[in-house]
Amino acid sequence: MIGVDVIKPTLSLGTLFQQTTAWTRLFAIRTGKCLLWALLGVLFLPGIVMADSTSALCEIEMKAAEAEIQRFPCTFSQRQGYVSIVVDDKDAYTLSPVGDAPGNYLDADGQPVYRQAGMGSAGLMFRFPDRVIRVMWSVEDE
Questions:
Q1: To which H or E segment does residue 139 belong?
Q2: Which residues pair with 99 in a beta bridge?
């Protein structure tokens, strides 16, 4: 026939099936890798999170004149500037960093708390409005 072009299909069913299978395999590999990374994250994340917590000995001194110093086992945690002190598995003090200067915090009630130098490598001291908490790394005196 003159003037009539025959259009041949460039994509056969076999080629379409091969391309679909290839995309399916690629998707399965990517999905498998994502699931593997998620599983590894769940398994190893708790160990990473616990790395910034330590057992310590806390001294709590109330600012009242006749108050005595009390000593308790405690857990000290620091994560991205936020501090948590859990005393004797009962009382928890959560401190949020405030401002650009290091050592300035707000407690859960919005009251200012200051980390004070003076203990060197023995521990940390936090000055609350009504008390001072000293966190000592050595727990031998428990």
A1: none
A2: none
Question: In the structure encoding, which two tokens stand for residue 29, read together?
Answer: 């590999």
Rounded distance between C-alpha atoms, residue 128 and residue 117, angstroms? 14
Nearest to 111 by CA among 130, 85, 125, 135: 130
CA angle 114–104–49, rounded 5-degree value: 100
pLDDT in tens, 53-62: 999 999 999 9
Q: Return d(Cα 85, Cα 53) in angstroms, integer.
A: 10
- Integer distance in angstroms from the first to the last C-alpha of the chain? 103
Q: What is the pLDDT of residues 26-75, one digit of tens each?
A: 556 566 565 556 655 555 554 444 448 999 999 999 988 777 899 999 99
